[in-house]
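SAMPLE LOG
Freezer: B-3
Tube label: C17
Construct: single chain, 281 aa
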Amino acid sequence: MLRAAAAGAVLILVLWPSSGSGQRAAPMWVAHDAPTTLEQGPGAPRSPPAWLPPLASLLVPGSGQLITGRDRGVVYMAMEALLLVRFFGFQAEGRREGDRYRDLAFTVARAPFGPADRDTAFSYFEQLATFIESGPFDTDPSPTIAPPDDPRTFNGSIWNLARRTFFADPDSLPEPNSEEYQRALAFYRARAVGPDFRWSWRNAGLEQDLFRQTIEQSDESFRQATQQLGLLLVNHLLSAVDAVITNRLSRNGPRMSVSTIIGPNRRGTDLAWQTVVQIGF
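STRUCTURE (predicted):
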């Protein structure tokens, strides 16, 4: 957000790492740079190269500000550390909840079928959360595959989808050696759950509810971790832009003061960060 006034300019950089609650922040940390004349006199200490502060801030947020003697660099560094802690925390929570729902699937839903492998594609666990059971892969003991018809099971729903997709009349089975039947069967075999990964939540409705909740918690934790990565990138870019602006203004002689505020929102669930740059002419 950019705001201009008649007596000068005010540049406001606002970062809201939140989930859309829209709450204003209660200040937790306020850092001020004292008003400073940015013009360098003959006796002033030699400034670092113009490219160094922005590059340093891009690599390590806040370092470019500290190189030029501006204390607000500490705020960028504090935000970087906080976001890193949150990122690794959400990652660990996501993995922990992932282990929980895999254990539930293995020890409850899959246990009656003597499972050997504990893990597979995530889409498999999504189906466990949706269907009460997988259903058998083949209902005919002969070498010919006979898919199940019950649409309440996962395998039955796949076979019904194959029939609607490839049969001229889904309610009438063509000859097993016909092209349309073979195409439907190939569709079913590519998507159905085999004997090694059968499951059933029969008489375990509470465990399936817990399984669903655990999957949602794991997904949400990984989503939050991804959000922290985005905010880390924003922090790097804001610090670099701050360093570029400060460096350019320092060659023109205006007076500038900077204040940075970081704090939680009113609900205490998210963070708000605001940097205000006031430039007088």
